Amino acid sequence: MDTIASRLRAALEMRGMKQAELVELTGIGKSSISTYLRGSYIPKQKNIYKMAKALNVNEAWLMGEDVDPTRQNAYSEPSDSSLVTIHYAGPVAAHFDATPDDAYEQRTIPAQWIGRRRPEDFFLATVSGDSMYPQFQDGDEILCLRCSDMGISGRIGIMLLGGDEATVKRIEYKPGEDWIDLIPINPEFKPRRIEGVDLEQCRVVGRVIKVIRTVDLI
């Protein structure tokens, strides 16, 4: 994976932008930008966002992730106008309930998002916190396919931890082993390993398949 420094240099070259222009557009100090370009300091989340916005690139790409550098500035409604109703489970945090009941909250989404599957095979949730930044931001809604097994190690899913507390993380494991690693994308957060008897209190409830983000452009 490329470093933030190499991606920042590439973005400046791609946009034909000078360091001084980036300073002016972001309000970040010249000395701070210089340390980012040298790779001697990792930018804070808010500065990554400012630079990505000024350079018109994807925050995850700027952080070195293997994703399209194109920035998604706004959410566009799909052309398919038909809607389906699915369960809204709430914030991915304490008191999370992925199982619908008679009083569960509902949300509508474009039918094309779920393909030929049934609406009850999915649920919506809200990201809480910054552990998965920048791919997932606090307040993002995520569309999840119900499942009890991630199928492939390294996918991003929601796991219940010992009751009704939930977390969204990259879930890594090895078949036959009695451990699971919960990996945050944000380097400021540490991975967490769940193993042995503790694993018996945890279960996967969904795999994230879409991020829904509303961006104010004013």
Task: Provide a brief overview of the structure.
This protein has 218 residues and is α+β, with helices and mostly antiparallel strands. The chain is built from 5 helices and 9 strands.
Structure description:
Strands 2-1-3-4-9-5-6-7-8 form a nine-stranded mixed beta sheet, with no helix packed on it. It contains five helices and nine strands; from the N terminus they run αααααβββββββββ. Mean pLDDT is 85; it is low at 74-80. Helices cover 20% and strands 28% of the residues. Strand 5 and strand 6 form a beta hairpin. The longest helix has 12 residues, at 4-15. The radius of gyration is 19 Å and the shape is globular. The chain has helices at 4-15, 19-26, 30-38, 45-55, 59-62, and strands spanning 83-91, 105-110, 122-126, 141-146, 155-161, 165-172, 179-183, 192-195, 202-212. By secondary structure, the chain is of the alpha+beta class. It has two domains: 4-62, 434 Repressor (Amino-terminal Domain); 83-212, Umud Fragment, subunit A, CATH 2.10.109.
How many individual domains? 2
What's the arrangement of strands in the largest beta sheet?
2-1-3-4-9-5-6-7-8
Counting helices, strands and paired strands, the structural category is alpha+beta
Radius of gyration: 19 Å
Q: How many separate helices?
A: 5
CATH class category of the largest domain: Mainly Beta
